[in-house]
Design brief:
By secondary structure, this protein is an alpha/beta fold. It has one domain: Maf protein. It contains 5 helices and 8 strands; from the N terminus they run E-E-E-H-E-H-E-H-E-E-E-H-H. It has a 6-stranded mixed β-sheet with strand order 4-3-5-6-7-8. Strands 1-2 form a two-stranded antiparallel ribbon. Strand 3, helix 1 and strand 4 form a beta-alpha-beta unit. Helix 4 crosses helix 5.
């Protein structure tokens, strides 16, 4: 961003997450206009228990909880996989579906077991993001990407359920696609596009956030 011929300094943005994969993905998408840090850079930040029953409720809990501890913009997200044949599961329990929080191998193994013999393999990733400032929610955004589940993992990239998910229009899993392709297609990218547009119209442009 330029103004009066001078490059403006990056806008500080704190991510309410300790997931390094997620932070790297969001930082890559946002580019140089934002100085991104996360909860790993702020050891005094509290652990926020995700007690909500929806992605929005969980994202809101994290955004407001961290925003009350720091000035400036805070961005949180909650995201997961929704499988039609499983009634929308694993949903908000995506990261602990296998019984151990953050154990991707266990999560994928349980999902494969649950899908044995099911003809309908349609699924989607959903991401809901909440922006907050000074303990107040300013906006929320949602992005989704539709696709289908494979019968066995494919690829070494990405994280979470990426080895099992093929986005519509492609023949390879998210874990097999180049990072720049996934970042363009993903649920997180689609939600983040809306976040960036909002921030550029408010924080970066200097307009009132209303």
């Amino acid at each position: 961003m330029q103004g009066g011929g001078l490059m403006q300094p990056p806008e500080p943005l704190v991510l309410a997450t300790r997931n390094a994969h997620k932070t790297r993905e969001i930082r890559d998408m946002l580019g140089a206009a934002f100085e991104v840090s996360d909860a790993n850079d702020h050891p005094d930040f509290p652990e926020i228990e995700e007690t909500g029953s929806t992605f929005l409720e969980n994202a809101r809990l994290k955004a407001l909880g961290i925003s009350r501890r720091t000035g400036g913009w805070v961005l949180s997200d909650d995201s997961g996989l929704e499988v039609d044949a499983l009634g929308g599961a694993p949903g908000v329990w995506s990261s602990s579906y296998g019984g151990v929080e953050g154990d991707h191998a266990r999560n994928n193994a349980r999902l494969l077991r649950e899908m044995v013999g099911r003809a309908d393999r349609s699924a989607r990733f959903r991401c809901t993001m909440v922006l907050a400032r000074d303990g107040v929610e300013t906006a929320n955004f949602t992005g989704t990407v539709e696709g289908r589940l494979l019968e066995e993992p494919e690829g070494d990239g990405g994280f979470g359920y990426d080895p099992l998910f093929v986005p519509d229009g492609y023949d390879s899993s998210f874990a097999s696609l180049p990072a720049e392709v996934k970042n363009r297609l993903s649920h997180r990218a689609r939600a983040l596009e809306r976040v960036v547009d909002y921030l550029r119209r408010t924080a970066v442009s200097g307009k009132d956030c209303g």
